[in-house]
Fold this protein.
Amino acid sequence: MSINKAILVGNVGRDPDVRYLDKNVAVANFSLATTERGFTMQNGTQVPDRTEWHNIVAWRGLAELAEKYIKKGSQLYVEGKIQTRSWEKDGIKRYTTEIVADKIELLGRRSDRTESDVDTKVSESEKSVPPLLEDEDDLPF
């Protein structure tokens, strides 16, 4: 058994680049920064913050969400799988590692978002999941 899952919370570094491929399939690419806070060691040495940049790829409905609501500075929760791809340019093999998003959730204060952005949690599998029970009296415990 193996697991390939990344869970990130961070800030968008640039507006998403959204393209439409054959058959009108949307794909969005953007960067997400996650920051590990610095600290002071017992001997007084300061360890600075460390920021890691992640390349995010979103397809179809998630790409359309990105196009409408995500912009530079947006705080996001992203779930997805880590994927490395390669290509050749000028005779040199190049590699990149990306997070292919399965779920994106906009975070941050509501005042940072538009009124139509109230429910912006989207995942590729959400369409097939039945709604949760809302009445606690129906729970079996």
